[in-house]
Amino acid sequence: MLDASPEVFLLVTGLLLLATVLAGTLSSRFGVPALIGFLALGMLAGSDGPGGIGFADYQAAQTIGVACLIFILFSGGLDTPWKAVRPVLSPALVLATLGVLISTAVVTVAAVLLLDFSILQGFLLGGVIASTDAAAVFAVLRTQETKLREDVLSLIELESGSNDPMAIFLVGAALALIAAPATPLLSFLPEFALQMILGALFGAGAGYAFTVILKRARLRQGGLFLVVSVAAALLAFGLAGSLGGSGFLAAYLAGVVAGNRDYPNRRQVSQFQDGLAWLAQVVMFLTLGLLVFPHQLPAVALDGLAITAVLMLIARPLSVFVSLAPFRAFDWRAKLFVSWAGLRGAVPIVLATFGIVAGVENAQTMFNIVFFVVLASSIIQGPTIGIAARRLGIDGRGPPGPDQAAKTEDAAA
Q1: Which residues sit opposite 53 in a β-bridge?
Q2: Per-residue b/e over 30-61, b at no fewer than 16 CB within 10 Å?
Q3: Rounded CA gap, 406 and 408, in Å?
Q4: What is d(CA 390, CA 338) in angstroms, rounded to the nearest whole number?
Q5: Any residues with CB less than 8 A from the CB of 14 and at least 6 apart, and which?
Q6: What angle do CA 343, 337, 304 make, to 5 degrees?
Q7: Are 314 and 388 in contact (CB under 8 A)?
Q8: Beta bridge partners of 46
């Protein structure tokens, strides 16, 4: 298809986008995240499927994935109300950093013991699949018409939106150690601190500047404010990334800052970015699906199931219970639900391409395992999230958390 005429290329692209949306809608009706439908269509359209589209450019897929993640994170930030997330800011940040580190460590050990990976290869695999996907969780909850307790919902939302930078840093550190094993581990700490600080500063600055521009520019052409919103996301990522900061953190925080300020056409910008984020998800998952060769998946099925089990039953629960131990607002029911709601999405698959591009040994096998883990996590956890919320009393009808109970008692008094 890449050698076809522009007309044929655009026709096939349009058909694929439309078919991908229909496939995602169909999968959502069964309580499975839409990403399963997106990925499945990508595999069907690929060289192993009836579509026969030959695509194995991991560098291009990585670039597409990064570009799409910018708008997904920016849109997620725009929809993050500060009043709702402020009470859970501390636990969410601990879970997004320490929790990711714990998950990575557990998966590293499992990869060494179960898959015969080296420690550094296991570290790379652990970092790749450490981050969670809020979009997948919320899509499932909306489909199952499940309403979560507000504090739990805010925690999952903020953690999922802010844990990608930590996972990306760990993947970068693993690749650096594979290239130069003698590198001292402590040498990565200043780099991590610099990435987070610069990412936060440039993100907050871009979000603030975006609202100021829209207030003062008085744009006469209505569509130009949408162009400015796209520029804000790209500038936040680009400025932070080019100067050593975390571009993904910057993109997310730019959205958070802008989303909690008043500016002209705010509603239209939010709707536009929401649509752009959905388009980004469709394009990203379709592209990643094209990279997968289904005939290679059975060979990693047992390894994939083993890592999925470790991730769902050990790594994620351990990271949640340890990270949230100091925070009394979340009882064991809330912690157990947050553990089960840690679905994996696009970010691990995108990060898995980094090892292939860098030429890491066993990187293709790792990519297939990660793809299998994402599929298994979505298929197993996705349809059962609503059930878990109801059984654990997290759906708003069960017992409130300690903080909510205290507020209720104060109000009654």
Answers
A1: 46
A2: ebbbbbbbbbbbbbbbbbbbebeeebebbeeb
A3: 5
A4: 13
A5: none
A6: 35
A7: no
A8: 53
Domains of the chain: 6-412 (1.20.1530.20)
Whole-angstrom distance, CA of residue 278 vs CA of residue 73:
11
First to last CA, the chain: 70
Phi, psi dihedral angles at 288 (to 5 degrees)? -65, -35
Q: How far apart are CA 48 and CA 31, in angstroms?
A: 27
Q: What is the largest CA-CA distance in the chain?
A: 73
Hey, how many other C-beta atoms are within 10 angstroms of the C-beta on 302? 12
Q: Who contacts 240 (Cβ-Cβ below 8 Å, separation ≥6)?
A: 198, 199, 201, 202, 203, 246, 247, 249, 250
Inter-residue contact 103 to 319 (CB < 8 Å): yes
pTM for the structure as a whole: 0.84
Is the C-alpha dihedral spanning 127, 128, 134, 136 positive or negative?
negative
Of 339, 342, 337, 320, the C-alpha closest to 399 is: 337
Q: How many CB atoms lie within 10 A of CB 4?
A: 11
pLDDT digits (tens, 9 = 90+) for 232-269: 999 999 999 999 999 999 999 999 999 999 988 888 89
pLDDT digits (tens, 9 = 90+) for 183-198: 888 888 898 899 999 9
